[in-house]
Amino acid sequence: MSRILTFAQAISEGMAQEMERDDRVFLMGEDVGRYGGIFGTDVGLYDKFGPDRVIDTPISESAFIGAGTGAAMEGLRPIVELMFVDFFGVAMDQIFNQMAKNTYMSGGRNSVPMVLRTAIGGGYGDAAQHSQILYSLFAHVPGIKVVVPSTPYDAKGLMISAIRDDNPVMFFEHKLLAGLDWLPFGVKGEVPEESYTVPIGKAEIKRTGKDLTIVTASLMVHRALAAAEKLSSEGIEAEIIDLRSLVPLDKETILTSVAKTHRLLIVDEDYLSYGMSGEIAAVVAEEGLYDLEAPVKRLAVPDVPIPFSHPMEDFVLPNEKKIAAAAKDLLKA
Amino acid sequence: MAKLTQEKLLKMYSQMVLIRQFEARIEGIYGKGAIPGEMHLSIGQEAIAVGVCTNLRADDAATSTHRAHNHLIAKGVDLKKMAAELFGRETGLCKGKGGHMHLFDPSIKFGCGGIVGAGMPLAVGSGLAFKRKGLDSVSVVFFGEGAANQGTFHESLNLAALWKLPVIFVCEDNHYGISVTKEMSTAVKSNADRALSYGIPGISADGNDVVEVYNVAEAAVARARKGEGPSLIELQTYRLKGHFEGDPEVYKPKAEQEEALQHEPIVRLEKILLAEYGVSQEELTEIKEARQVEIEEAIKFAESSPWPKPEEALEDVFVAGGAF
Ligand SMILES: Cc1ncc(C[n+]2csc(CCOP(=O)(O)OP(=O)(O)O)c2C)c(N)n1
């Protein structure tokens, strides 16, 4: 049986089902308890599992993210919530040098079965320190699996996979997908009541098309789908790939699509340089160059922090219109 | 302790009223959607900002948090430029790039930001610069009791103490870090006690009593100016609003809120002014009205200011200049 849930509800349900199934699983982070998570992703968990398993932490990210790693190495399965990805800097060492590397440095003798969840994204005027995406930073560091769902169905299934994974998984939740009153947009969708998994490392083709491939993730999947409808009315058929995971990266789905469409547009809400868009372009350059009939095109934030005022914020963030325009440019090339 | 003059007290009252009325106005505007992003109000915490900043000069630095309107106004900002920044306009303090949580005004040495605990190392840095330059300027950092559990708090206290820097750490204990109470987050009863670990004075005082705030800040500022090093001041207050506008506040007991309203700083100061200084109700009303006029001018200026051009987003990542 499935019903319609918001993205936030799907995440909460995924965590709840795993907490019921496995008593090693617990949640800790800022305002995850009585508040239910600032983005509504933890609603109901505190009432169901109590303060012992749904733990409100002090504002001490370095300590509680590190504690997640330590507890995971002792065999528990912590879910740790970093309220906004922008705050990762406070705990950078614990994430990059401890959580990510304790498996490798121990020659595989330690494992860190932990999920580090975090909210990402802009588009609602929250400015430079509360609007970033940054998933590429974490994907860059070996030892962290990186998951970026775009729908309630994937959010629940990937959450369950992430909790069951024996490795550290970072789980990126776009705020505009959450479905909260005080934030724009929000997605709802069919989610089965029962437990299920969505595999980490498998992209999904959201729309088939013959004229170009658009590779993207998270909120931008929805923006790209909207752009594709517009393009379709003008006779252009875009194939849209939702990466869903950045690490491991599903190269095969990307390369197969590019071999069919011969044109590639990458849409990324992260900064342009040294990030996801560059990585996908490099993969296609290395392994699919001869399939291309035009240079790869990238649409991303033009290497500036996210500005507060909306004319400027709109200018830097990719959107439906810019995606459609970039697609048309690519077809002219 | 010498009794404060009526003039000084009225000046502080006027500043507190300005902050309260400005924020009340912003609250209404935000509610209608004219200001994007989050909105953290300092309503109920005006005495701390004013009591501390009345001891400061323009060449003293102040660093604040996501809840910074009170500190910025108390430090002496041009209200028009501040309002324009909140509205995201070209004429704002930061040309619309910073917004409510990221208000910078180098002309009065003020900065703030949205990362909890981030201000403390920066304040240590300005203290270090003042000392190296041989100035007697001081650096004040405002932060919540929630921020006192960040590593930066402990590292900064140690560094400032070790290097005897002119830094005043002002912990604004409003009891909540979003939904998490101090009891849920903090292993000690008073953050002032943490000063002991770093061998510096730790003072706890009533943050809703502007006279008391003024007096403890005066002593800490004097100590810093004389080169005797940092102080940690914990000031008890209460967050009368939600963490941010739109916070459902399900975690906050109604009785606690009502009790807190009895002790809010402006009403308390009014009582003192009326009873002990012989100020009339009419004088207080006049002050309120005069400040409201200023506020309306600032809002009008903000609303009628131009938006930044979209392409301006690409500017200011770096400044020009440097060694070539
Ligand atoms: C490093 C970091 N962690 C978490 C947050 C989210 N956050 C913003 S304000 C806040 C509570 C801060 O509490 P406190 O320091 O007591 O200040 P108050 O809000 O009460 O003024 C939290 C958790 C943040 N902005 N930065």
Structure in words:
The complex is a heterodimer of chains A (333) and B (324). Chain A has helices spanning 7-21, 45-49, 61-73, 92-99, 102-105, 135-140, 152-164, 219-233, 251-261, 276-287, 310-316, 320-332, and strands at residues 2-6, 25-29, 54-56, 77-84, 115-120, 145-147, 169-174, 188-192, 204-207, 212-216, 238-242, 245-247, 264-271, 297-301. Chain A has 333 residues and is an alpha/beta fold. In chain A, strands 3-2-4-5-7-6-12 form a 7-stranded mixed beta sheet, sandwiched between helices. In chain A, strands 9-11-10-13-14 form a 5-stranded mixed beta sheet, with helices on both faces. Chain A has a two-stranded antiparallel sheet with strand order 1-8. In chain A, helix 7 links the parallel strand 6 and strand 7. The model of chain A has no long low-confidence stretch (mean pLDDT 98). Chain B has 324 residues and is an alpha/beta fold. Chain B has 11 helices and 8 strands. In chain B, the strands form 2 sheets. Chain B has a 6-stranded parallel beta sheet with strand order 2-1-3-4-8-7, sandwiched between helices. Chain B is globular, with a radius of gyration of 19 Å. The complex binds thiamine diphosphate. Thiamine diphosphate sits between chains B (65-67, 114-117, 143-147, 174, 176-178, 239, 243) and A (30, 59, 61, 83, 87, 90).
